[in-house]
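Notes to self, DUF4283 domain-containing protein:
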Amino acid sequence: MRLGGPHKRNLRTLVRTTFALVIKQRYVAQNWSQVTAPDLFLHEEGYNISKLHTFDDLKDILYGGSYTINSIPMILKQWTLEFDLTTEFLTEIRLWITLPNLPMSCWGNKALSKIASAIGKPLFADECTSNQMRISYARILVEANVTKKLPTELTLQDPYGRMFQQQAIYEWKPHYCAECMNIGHDCELTKRENKEEHPRGRKRQEKVTTRW
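result:
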């Protein structure tokens, strides 16, 4: 079920990654085999541009889930004419969210879209959620600003006016470092690790014995 999504006239995606192009090509061949092999282009600012061949291929990749290489996330974003590769900083990232034990009265398209809007821009609900094939939890894809705190609990109101607390679980979410303004990095953690590797301690002085 589509709650929003990519524009049909734009079949390019931006991939934010530090890996070499050959590694990305190998990854695409192994993990994006369900679509026609896209054309890949490398930009020195750390972006790969993937040109898909059909709108269905683009939708399949964007809605396919989270992608990682060696446990390092690839951040995908649909390319636009206004995107500046030299200055743009990705803050809006697609995240899959599960809503466990969501009341059945809140499973409609409009209700799910409204719930997802509390976190970010609603994009898509997976097939099991759309067709209510799995009712233990709803699963929604949203585009959220990861520089802000992402809520893990939402206060909702059902169609009968009753208020309740709804847990929101992120299948994956990147860490944002406010100090260096980078995604996937933690300056405080790096400092702690450096201290552990090089602990500060008083230098032990050797005992000097003077002989006459």
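- The CA atoms of residues 192 and 198 lie 10 Å apart.
- The radius of gyration is 23 Å.
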